[in-house]
Amino acid sequence: MTKSEVYLVSADDRGEGSRRCLKYFPLPDYSGKTVLVKPNFNSADPPPGSTHNDTLDVLLGAVKEANAQRIILGERSGPAEVEEVFRQKGIGALCEKHGAEFVPFSALSDEDWVVIEQPGLHWQGGLKVARAVTEAGAVVATCCLKTHGFGGVFSSALKLAVGITPKNFNLLHNTKDQRKMIAEINLAYAPDLVIVDAVEVFTDGGPMEGVRNRANLMLAGSDRVALDAVGLAILKYLGSNAAIMDTPIFKQEQIARAVELGLGAASPEEIQIVTDDERSGVVVEKIKAILNNG
Question: Is residue 6's pLDDT more than 90?
Answer without folding.
Answer: yes
